[in-house]
Every structure is written in structure tokens, then in C-alpha cells.
Amino acid sequence: MDISVTDFKARCLDLIRKVEESGKAITIRRRGQVVARLEPAGAAGDGGKPWEQLRALGGRAQVKAHESVWADKDFEALR
Question: Which pLDDT score is estimated for 10?
């Protein structure tokens, strides 16, 4: 959802509740330029585990959390 700074200021508390309930972010614009983004706490980039951040962005991990996508020989090559 996009909203102007003026509209955001007038409806701030309602918009915060809406983000909380829906889990969807709101982009705030001034004169057509993005100036801020309101997103739910716990969204991607919050310092969570990398696979949780990937899932929050709509991605999918190809291995289980305890598995590695690198072979042992690849680790040795990096030494």
C-alpha cells in the first residue's frame, strides 16, 4: 500500500494497527518519492536467522536448517 505523508500523518494510529493485523508493509511517499516504509516487526532484515529472512522475502531454502549446500571439499578449497 502506498500513502502520502499527509495522509499518513492524519491516519497514523489506524495505519499502524492495519500493518499489525495484516502483516503487510506501507510505503510512505512525499511528492511521489518514497521517504519511508512501515512494516511489521519481525520482517526481513531484523537480524533473524538467514533462512527466516529468506522466507519472509518469499524465498525458499533448498536444504534443511542443519544441512549445508557446500561439500566438504569446497570448504577445504577455501583454506
Answer: 95
